[in-house]
Design goal:
Elements (H helix, E strand, L loop, with lengths): L14 E3 L4 E4 L2 H12 L21 H16 L6 E10 L2 E11 L1 H4 L1 E8 L8 H16 L4 E7 L3 H9 L3 E10 L2 E11 H4 L8 E3 L1 H8 L3
Parallel strand pairs: 5-6
Antiparallel strand pairs: 1-2, 1-9, 2-3, 3-4, 4-5, 6-8, 7-8
Helix pairs in contact: 1-2
Length: about 220
Amino acid sequence: MYGEAMLSFAPLQVRVSTPRIELVGATDELLEQLQPLVRDGKANADPAPYDDPISLYEEDPAVRVHKWLQGIWRGRGHAAPGSWRLNFAVVLDSQPVGMQDLIGENFDTFGTVMSFSWLSTDIRHRGIGTEMRQAILHLAFEGLKATEAASDAFVDNAGSNGVSRALGYTENGVDWATRRGEVGLLQRWRLTRDDWLPHRRTDIRLQGVGDCAAALGIA
């Protein structure tokens, strides 16, 4: 089983399983397996998908990996009921191929979450991105009882915006951000629990959510 060396850290015990993929708490073992994808730039895309600052835009591969790992490790140490980030490796056919994160901001007050993801260039355009989002939304709404999920993407990010639209999100305004120092327009999306329910799947399994919620201080 992935992550046996860190099973005492409850957020790394969480598993979200669909018929196609599994989201597995991003242990150091899994990060090591994902490291070549980050080093080779396979987490990136054209047009640039992320707003600044982000380690995945670092030009030097060694610096890119170093800062990427630092950010994940830093996040493990700053988990509280109102602010947390759960990092998952996306496992396809027993191979880690990307990451899917769930982020709680003011979760103890509003029950709101955001998602962030990347997928290796080798396996895009196969519906895996949609499967990842459905899995993380199931964890948010079914497992952690979130009330609302948010997402955003640059307006030219057809993949991310298409997933949001297909899964029932509604447009929630626009905003400006920079990517690689250049100004771009972000489309914001909002998905309430009531809007998610018609899209709820019955073939997604959750594991370890209770212990994770307790560790984060989520009632």
